[in-house]
Design goal:
The chain has a four-stranded antiparallel beta sheet with strand order 1-2-3-4, with no helix packed on it. The protein has four helices and seven strands; from the N terminus they run βαααββββββα. It has two domains: 80 residues; 67 residues, PH-domain like. 19% of the residues are buried. The radius of gyration is 21 Å and the shape is elongated. By secondary structure, the protein is an alpha+beta fold. Keywords: Membrane, Transmembrane, Transmembrane helix.
């Protein structure tokens, strides 16, 4: 594949960060966290309603627990979105030209003066978002984001075949 390039603008950065945040918020460990928070919220509401239904006064901890749980969920989403924005901006600053080449055994990618030659065996799997292709690194909790516009559907199929 000949090198393809794109100039990264603020809009593309925001959209790629959104795809990265959605990826992070829907990973299996994140889903476990959401289920735990949902369970805690249901228990908090049940404790609150059970305490107030009998006309008894409930403690401040029981009364504030649902609010604290919702605040924790919002905090988790906010931190994930912020982290995704920071990571995407660090890798591809606005107005930089990002290029990509798919070779038989490796992916070559560059942004500004940086260049990476990454063997496909480095990646565990990929997820295709609307504006970013996210390549999860093997034995790590991070992913590499590539602008979706740099890859055709055939390129993505070839990547899927090479990443096992």
């Amino acid at each position: 594949m000949p090198p393809r390039s794109v100039t990264v603008d603020e809009g593309l950065l925001r959209r790629m960060a959104r795809d990265a945040a959605v990826y992070s918020l829907t990973r299996p460990i994140a889903i476990v966290m959401w289920l735990a928070l949902a369970g805690a919220l249901v228990l908090g509401i049940l404790n609150l309603s059970a305490g107030t239904s009998g006309g008894r006064e409930v403690s401040a901890i029981v009364a504030w627990m649902p609010v604290v749980i919702v605040a924790l969920a919002l905090f988790a989403v906010g931190m994930t979105v912020s982290g995704a924005r920071t990571a995407v901006r660090a890798a591809m600053p606005a107005e930089s030209v990002v290029w990509l080449t798919l070779d038989d055994d490796r992916l070559q990618m560059g942004s500004g003066r940086r260049r990476s030659d990454i063997p496909y065996s480095t990646f565990q799997h990929l997820r295709v978002g609307r504006d970013a292709v996210l390549l999860k690194l093997r034995d790590a909790s991070v992913a590499t984001a590539i602008p979706r516009v740099l890859l055709s559907d055939d390129d993505i199929a070839a990547l899927r075949a090479r990443i096992r």
